[in-house]
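Please think about what follows:
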Amino acid sequence: MTISAKQWLQQIHALPQRKDKVKIMNVCGGHERSITMAGLRKALPDYIELVPGPGCPVCVCPEEDVFEAIQLALNEDIILVAFGDMLRVPVNVPKAQARTLEQAKAQGADIRPIASPTEAVAIAKQNPDQAVVFFAAGFETTTAPVAAMMVEGVPDNLSLLLSGRLTWPAVAMLLDSGTPGFDALIAPGHVSTIMGPEEWEFVVDKHNIPAAVAGFQPDSLLAAMYSTLRQLNDERYFLDNCYPSLVKPGGNKSARRQLDKAMDVYDANWRGVGIIPGSGYVLNQQYSSHDVRAQFPSYADDARKRAGQMPPGCDCAQVVLGKIYPNECKLFGTACKPRNPIGPCMVSDEGACRIWWAGGMRETVNRVSEQEAVG
């Protein structure tokens, strides 16, 4: 029997009302988009807070990687291809310089948006005498097709500027900090489809926090919320799979094999957050000849890493970590809007700031700093 979103909502309202707030983090930007567009926050009991989490690859892509992509496109005789959202991510440079790949394209660089790795291969084959660089940023669901592309074989003229990230280490970092800022977790269904739901068992086993895997429709999301609330009420915690139609034990074994064959995992930088252990993908030795950094002079430098935080006044990193809501950033809706994004969270359709703005949640909230609260 299929339970509708309305029925799940009724079951949530039928649970015992709690006096304390319950904060449920949804890791995925796709979840946040579904929650906001369906108006689920307003439909839930007042004691439930839904916290957007770190599931936006565009938001956490290191500034130095975006800067390097811009410089390669401007200074080398190449075609640079990237997923569409990446073209509008700003870097910290003077206004006279290209701040985005979109601006670099306007200055004459050959930059082309693509939607899948197969398009990158096709462009390389269509231009055999031209070097093609694929700037590939994304989480496991995006990196797995990139790995498959490499394993299947790519043209000699195609190189990768890889900025792949794993999702779960960011959640592990928050939990290990001792102040995670949430009481329950909704894990991303698409990542679990690839990697398997078992990847999220540490949330329950190590940290004693209820967790549920959800799909992207309101019924699956509400089922996951109901599950975690029931777990909290019963004080019996487990990982619940509320997306069984696609999420299976062990995940997609073929995709995982491709990732293991083409990629190594390393300690990677997340923009505005810093190094998160075991959170990044890099091409392994077998495919290193297609690493752009081996093909072209490097435009990365230590100064970029120091400059590579969020732009001045931008609180995207705090939004990504679930420490504040988008409308608590002082730039939200004033200097920072979708037409002129200051930070990456206002660029991507998976960025919480862009989602809230598109969903009509535009009323800003003035935060009181800790210093102001004390003094």
About this structure: The radius of gyration is 21 Å. Confidence is low (pLDDT under 50) at residues 368-375. The domain at 20-54+174-241 is CATH 3.40.50.11750 (Rossmann fold). The longest strand covers residues 274-283.
